[in-house]
Amino acid sequence: MQDDPIPLITFPNGTEVPALGQGTWAMGEDAGHARAEIESLKAGIDLGMTLIDTAEMYGDGGAEEIVGQAIRGRRDEVFVVSKVYPWNASLKGTIEACERSLERLGTDRIDLYLLHWRGNYPLAETVAAFEMLKTSGKIGAWGVSNFDTDDMQELLGVPDGANVAANQVLYNLSRRGIEFDLLPWCQSRKIPIMAYSPIEQGNILHHPELIRIAKAYQATPAQLALAFLLERDGVIVIPKTSNAERAAENRDCVSLDITDEDWQALDAAFPPPAKKKPLEML
Fold it and tell me: Which residues bind substrate (predicted)?
């Protein structure tokens, strides 16, 4: 495939990032896999997938340590995203959790820091902590994860809530519920959506129609599933792999040029929502 450039997404603060990044869910859980995980992330960075998403939750901080090793010596090349547990998201707890993440990542800043999902602490308190971290230079911007439309509307009503830079949610061909309201709501406000589990942890890759259409383009079903998401305005896609060859395969999805007819066939196989659905999570 041609080495087409990865499309760029612009955050509200003007920062541009590649629309195709790398996820790290389940990394850092087995020392025997660490070397392959690090090498895969490094290969992805080399290929331009310089946005790396992680969280204090993943591998109990182990994934952040893997990311730290992968970006050592090239911190300025990458855009690091991490997340705070909801039960750590008090004013003091958010700041302390961020400090621990910074230590595991081996860096002095996190480019985008997200509330992993809603918890019991008031949004205003978490946002205040995020703003303090931003002022101190420990984070570049902040956002949320697993927020539905009503959560986003509530967020915009708290002090500084309008500074939200992104919302990371479950989104793939088999989980299209956000297309009914959340995705257009965020698009109209220029708030990027980050799509996690973009191939449904591999569960959609055996779908006959996905396989049929992918073959027509000499592509893999995973590449087609990623290309589907990259077609959406303001969507950042973060597939996870621990295999450097698969990282290169993921990168090639940007070169797919799918016909309208085949997009319609995918719509028929994976229908978009006809009504509001509760936000899905993994």
Answer: 116
Residue with tokens 């079903």: 221
Distances (CA, A) of 10 to 51, 96, 112, 173, 191: 13, 29, 13, 24, 9
Q: Evaluate if residue 31 carries a pLDDT over 60.
A: yes
Secondary structure (3-state) at 144:
strand
**Helix, coil or strand: residue 12:** coil
Domains of the chain in start order, with CATH, are 18-269 (3.20.20.100)
Does the active-site annotation cover 196?
Answer: no
Rounded distance between C-alpha atoms, residue 241 and residue 172, angstroms: 16
Reduced to 3 states (helix: H, G, I; strand: E, B; else coil), residue 53 is strand
Kindly report the number of other CB atoms within 10 A of residue 71's CB atom.
Answer: 22
The residue from 58, 113, 121, 196 that is catalytic is: 58
Residue 218 has a CB neighbour count (10 Å cut-off) of: 9
Q: How far apart are CA 184 and CA 178, in angstroms?
A: 8
Reported as a single tens digit per residue, the pLDDT across 154-193 is 999 999 999 999 999 999 999 999 999 999 999 999 999 9
- Please return the burial class of 53, using the count of CB atoms within 10 Å of its CB with bins 0-12, 13-18 and 19+: buried
Measured distance CA(56)–CA(98) in Å, rounded: 9
Cα 167 to Cα 142: distance, rounded to the nearest angstrom: 10
Would you say 143 and 15 are in contact if contact means Cβ atoms under 8 Å apart?
Answer: no
CA-to-CA distance for 146 and 9, rounded, in angstroms? 20
Per-residue pLDDT at 3: 74
Residue 33 labelled as part of a binding site: no
Per-residue pLDDT tens over the stretch 179-230: 999 999 999 999 999 999 999 998 999 999 999 999 999 999 999 999 999 9
Tokens 């195709």 belong to which residue? 20
Distance, in Å, from the CA atom of 104 to the CA atom of 77, rounded to the nearest integer, reads 18
